[in-house]
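Team,

Forwarding the record for the chain on the shared tracking sheet. I've put the sequence and predicted structure together so nobody has to dig through attachments.
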Amino acid sequence: MVAAHQFDGLVMIPNCDKNVPGLLMAAARLNIPSIFVSGGPMLAGKLKDGKRTCLSHMFEAVGAYKAGTLDEAGVAEMTENACPTCGSCSGMYTANSMNCLTEAIGMSLPGNGTIPAVYSARLRLAKHTGMKIMELVEKDIKPRDIMTAKAFDNAETVDMALGCSTNTMLHLPAIAHEAGVEIDLDKSNEISRRTPNLCHLAPAGSTYMEDLDLAGGVYAVMKELTKKDLLHTDLITATGKTVAENLEGVENTDEEIIRPIDNPFMATGGIAVLKGNLAPDGCVVKAAAVAPEMMEHEGPARVFDCEDDAIEAIYAKKINPGDVVVIRYEGPKGGPGMREMLNPTSAIAGMGLGESVALITDGRFSGATRGASIGHVSPEAASGGNIALVQEGDIISINIPECSIVLNVSDEELEKRRAAWVCPEPRIKTGYLARYAKMVSSADKGAILLP
């Protein structure tokens, strides 16, 4: 449509999980002056006891009800209050992660990721965005002028500091690909190792997007990062100014919400990339949302070939403390399309197993997922990755601080299993998704379509 109508510029208005990266990909591909303004996050909910709540608590309430630790009245109260206003869900979930990273990469005005949807400031931001696109068109500042390799480094650095959704490890490589930039997971780990985690918003903690906004927003986080020269500050942005110019006068006004860089929540970033024989090309976990006792874990595999079977087993109380739930054939090719595993991860947390059970999948998670939930296992099961060879009871060792994930089965045994392995029939055999499954890359490459 944009090419057909020969537009001079674009104002992109996304808000939820996938249309933010989708439009960033389109902006990079079209490469005409573009700017983003999202609809903004919702406010946190509030329960009768004064506690604040959010979407992830709603999902976990279902698990708590199944476990008998929450009654129907408690579920009803949560249902009425978890999502009290319009906007993207109130924690650092995927939508808000991507809208914050749109600021960090330089494609929006300040506040895009954090100003609540119901605030008048959101309308003012939209007005200013409409004014700013005229300047970008006049100066001919295009997305690929902004979304450079260094800008993606900045985005990943802010990602680690904020403790964003693991989905960013799919979306950023896909956006970068459209901009002619390649991102690999090894570099992501390098950035994580040098970037302290400064924020613990839901689901990692008990603070919300409105709190981050009041504390100074994404720019205040970026200002903290510049104190140790962790950002490239000479890059042009959609404000028409450089990162350094954008950050002039910015202050962190709440050091409980945005920790000072010398007093972080964690010395390393919020996301970790794990590798080992179970995931030779990598897998990802939101380390900032993992309970301390689960940072290292070893246990028997409980294997399921789809998400639905795993949920049924969890709710039937067939999963025990110490288990490692493996959900496979849910990757880009096997899904096809990597549906979101918020239901099983929330069921595990809601049933009181979040501090004793890990979950591993070649699919992906919601940004609302917490716990030792490890996704994007590459190569995926449908491509013959080793996750396809895991058998019930195999011991799996996870060490998040050391970025390792190991299936404790010998190479010889794995080769025997591989010789006997037969890939299941594809779930979708016709139409667009069938073509997608044949053309899609692995998750570590951003699940992009191959030429």
